[in-house]
Request: fold
Amino acid sequence: MAKFTTKTNPRYFHKSQLKFYFILAPIAIFMMLPIIFIFSQAFKPVDELFLYPPRFFVRRPTLANFYELFQITRASTIPISRYLMNSILTAFFTVLFTIIISVFAGYALSKKQFKAKNLLFTINNLALMFVPIAVIIPRYLIVQKLGLIDTFIINILSLLAMPIGVFLVKQFIDQIPDALIDAALVDGANDFHIIFNIVMPLLKPAISTVGILAFQVAWNSAEASTYYINNENLKTFAFYVSNLTQTTGNTVAGQGIAAAAGLIMFVPNLILFIIMQSRVMNTMAYSGLK
Amino acid sequence: MRISSKKDRGHWLLLSPYLVLFIVFIALPVAVAIYLSFTYFNAIEKPKWIGIQNYITLITRDTLFMQKVLPNTIKYALIVGVGGYILSFILAWLVAQLTRIPRTIFALIIYSPSLTAGVTMSVIWRVLFNGDQQGYLNALLLKLGIIDKPIQWLQSPQHLMDIMILVSLWSSMGVGFLAMLAGILNVDEQLYEAAYIDGIKNRLQEIIYVTIPAMKPQMLFGAVMSIVNTFTSAGIGVALSGSNPTPQYAGQLIVNHIEDYGFLRYEMGYAAALSVVLLLIIWFFSRIAWRLFGERD
Reply:
């Protein structure tokens, strides 16, 4: 009798898999259509935007919409590059600090022995389902009390506590054998030495995943700009895009500009994920909640 | 005995940055919401303790909440949260039946909509669902002869909710989907082998008796992510229609109702009571998920 092989996660192609392609192909097309639409719309020249009946695909791609996007802010005192720069800085520091904070906390929750450990981990698991928008008013009042209204760092600070980040890092560090850390302790290494020289190199998949999730939150979030910041100089690009229709009006030309802005929002997320996808999948294998 | 379990306080040093941020931005807001929900607070004068008055108002006087907002929220949560979760699992399972390279490509395509940042994307949706004949959906349906005059998709109470659900479902295959895919791929092959010897006959039985029980932790993680995603994206009705309240409150969810009372009417105490109700709804859904897939209890 032939050796048993499961049909899930197959190593080779077999024609019995064709039916799955037939089911998945239309779903994939449906999923991709809006994304193709953004790309197509963003590169359409004005006359194609005005076309009636509207045509889905672009015929003569142009960068005019991107040019226009940068032009519309020319008249106002704050150029679009300001919003973009704020977003880039916010994303960079959010990713950096989220990783450091999550790794420190995840390491302590995984490898240290102390009384409150299980309690803290349970609370963190509970906080996985925390939805910031649900308590937006108390958050606003606390930010106000701390004197952080209209500061740039609130963009970053409000995003740093990421329960899912600590959770994923902790689960991943659980896989690292204790012996490795004990050996380093015998050699006289301190916690920071162990984290940066022993744990971090083994933690690359989890760090990439936390980094990507932090980037998505930071890049896409308009929370701080909407609620905590009044000074236009400090707001992020995500906020600018979500309010774009107020600037351009719901006009046909505005649609091309909106698509160009949407594309700038989407592409960095996509590229980062494509680069990191195998590391993310590796981390997700340890994502189970018990 | 572990050497690292020697008496040291290093763990508090390592945990402190996270704990501080956690308390300030997660724990404290929840506590303050609960406190304020028992007060009258207009953001200018000090909060005045009024007991459970806000909750009484919520149940007896806020007809809008009982007739529109709560049913909307529950409908949205059931279809986008529960429906989206089941869909995530089905798609993850289908994708897992393919060899590595096509699997990666399909997974990427299914995952990528979740990268589009719900509310920010509304600029795009407004073009697709534009109310005049210039809108892409209208133009397509007119051409196919399904409708004879353009429909105000985002301004009409009959359609707004459906579009919110469609858009949210489309972008709901996020981290939870990836986790479940990883879970399915990591089920031990021997479990299937043993199950077929024990008399499992088809693939549906395989899913129910082998795959899901073997990946319960991922199922739970996926469920929690699905809940979070559902309620985080709940502002979408206002973003799509461009107004709070949404036309005839058709797309009004609790999140919008909170903003309406908190930031537009400055009835912060009442808004806090709404927040507490929302947190309870989220908690209720997650209890169900833990019951189904958790290992304790």
Summary: The radius of gyration of chain B is 23 Å. Chain B touches chain A through 115 residues (CB under 8 Å). Chain B has one domain: 63-293. Residues 63-293 of chain B form a domain with the MetI-like fold fold (CATH 1.10.3720.10).
